[in-house]
Amino acid sequence: MDAPKGFEYEILEKSSIHNLYEFNNFNYALQYNFNSQHPEVLVTLAKYKGETVGIASASDDCKTMWQIGVDVLLKYRGNGLAAVLVNMLTLEILNRGYIPYYSTDCSNVISQHVAVRAGYIPVWSHCFRTRIDSFHT
Q: Which residues of the chain have pLDDT under 50?
């Protein structure tokens, strides 16, 4: 993919990822949990003029598969940055011998679009509902 111009891109390994917890605006990419059972193991990030503006991370969900999450600061959305970060991370995961996967809510059309632009295809869908009997309008 052609990366948006003007940004710097980095790949961070597991030992450096917790340093990113100082940034509190990347809830879809970072778990902010030092004791997670499925810790982040690899990150691609984008910087603009030294400021971290986008992060895609992979969490170690099992022996063979790593799940990808991504978040871009609001000001920098809409230029393909999320898809580029996910694509870069996907290729790095594959190079390490793991299976990357991208999961999102069925109602999050923007996230689905990011996944497709990054090279993913939908293979499974699941929806659920909740019945609240005591709720009256």
A: none
Say which DSSP state 92 is in: H
Which residue matches tokens 């778990």?
31
Q: What is the pTM of this model?
A: 0.88
The edge-to-edge listing of strands for the beta sheet with 40-48 is: 8-13, 40-48, 51-60, 65-72, 99-102
Report the alpha-carbon distance of residue 83 to residue 93 in Å, rounded: 15
* 98 neighbors 86 (Cβ within 8 angstroms): no
The two tokens of residue 95 are 């190079």
- For residues 68 and 56, the answer to whether their CB atoms sit within 8 Å is yes
Task: With beta carbons less than 8 A apart as the criterion, state whether 86 and 102 touch.
Answer: yes
**Tokens 């019945």 — which residue?**
131
